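> forwarded from #structure-qc
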């Protein structure tokens, strides 16, 4: 019997004595090896499942979204295959950033969450936050003279998602803090960003043009960028609902 997987399982479960002795104790009996193999596989599976659940909870996703629930036909310009590739999380190992740009309601947060959840399944430590929330926590940390440890605490995540960057104009102090957080991360960990701002417009929300271009430079340098277009999905479905309630046939205008 091929015991390759059993060896792997016992190693990953950190059971060195069992690994060293199970063959001797099985006395060449395949049914014993099968039994142990099944038990070990069960334990590995359960621990993996628990780990994924723990990482998803720790990431604090606002909602759980799946790739199956995303209607790609509404985003014909989005390179679907390139997006799907992100679900294997290799971009995280390569310290790449992922950026979704587009107006409200087109699915930026949905898509970003999807790759975040996949990252949790692939064993990565992940954090989901909004730009406003992150800034508030950095400002509070700075006031309490804990900025350095706060920035360092972000280092333990393999992938940090910052939702809604650019929705509110930043104060000078906030820009500076955000800049520090992004610089700190530069080439050391992955960021996932959603924003309604095209890069040339970043100078409008950052009080300082130099700071704006420095942030953009660092974000974009190793980034995979997706631009989403179109009408808000919520608005679209609300219109759809209204039509159905009226009992009128849906007719494109
Ligand atoms: P954004 O972050 O761009 O403002 P969201 O990702 O929050 O938009 O999307 C708004 C809502 O519409 C969410 O409930 C999302 O799941 C849904 N949605 C948006 N685009 C699509 C789509 N193409 N297919 C399915 N659901 C979508
Ligand atoms: Mg959003």
């Amino acid at each position: 019997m091929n015991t390759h997987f059993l060896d792997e399982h016992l190693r990953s479960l950190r059971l060195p004595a069992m690994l060293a002795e199970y063959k001797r104790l099985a006395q060449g009996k395949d049914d014993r090896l099968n039994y142990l193999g099944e038990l070990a596989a069960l334990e590995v599976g359960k621990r993996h499942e628990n780990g994924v659940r723990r990482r998803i909870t720790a990431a604090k996703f606002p909602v759980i979204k799946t790739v199956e629930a995303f209607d790609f036909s509404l985003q014909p310009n989005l390179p679907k295959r390139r997006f799907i590739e992100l679900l294997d999380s290799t971009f995280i190992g390569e310290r790449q950033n992922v950026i979704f740009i587009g107006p409200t309601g087109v699915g930026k947060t949905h898509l970003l969450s999807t790759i975040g959840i996949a990252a949790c399944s692939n064993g990565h430590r992940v954090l989901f936050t909004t730009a406003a929330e992150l800034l508030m926590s950095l400002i509070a940390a700075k006031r309490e003279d804990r900025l350095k440890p706060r920035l360092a605490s972000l280092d333990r995540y393999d992938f940090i998602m910052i939702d809604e960057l650019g929705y509110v104009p930043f104060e000078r102090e906030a820009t500076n803090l955000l800049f520090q957080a992004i610089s700190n991360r530069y080439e050391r960990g992955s960021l996932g960003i959603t924003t309604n701002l095209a890069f040339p417009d970043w100078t409008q929300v950052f009080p300082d043009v130099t700071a704006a271009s420095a942030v953009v430079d660092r974000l974009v340098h190793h980034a995979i960028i997706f631009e989403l277009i179109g009408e808000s999905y919520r608005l679209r479905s609300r219109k759809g609902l209204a039509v159905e309630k009226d009992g009128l046939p849906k007719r494109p205008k």
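QC bot note: The pocket of adenosine-5'-diphosphate (ligand 1) is lined by residues 65, 69-71, 74-75, 102, 104-110, 194, 233-234 (CB under 6 Å). DSSP finds twelve helices and five strands in the chain.
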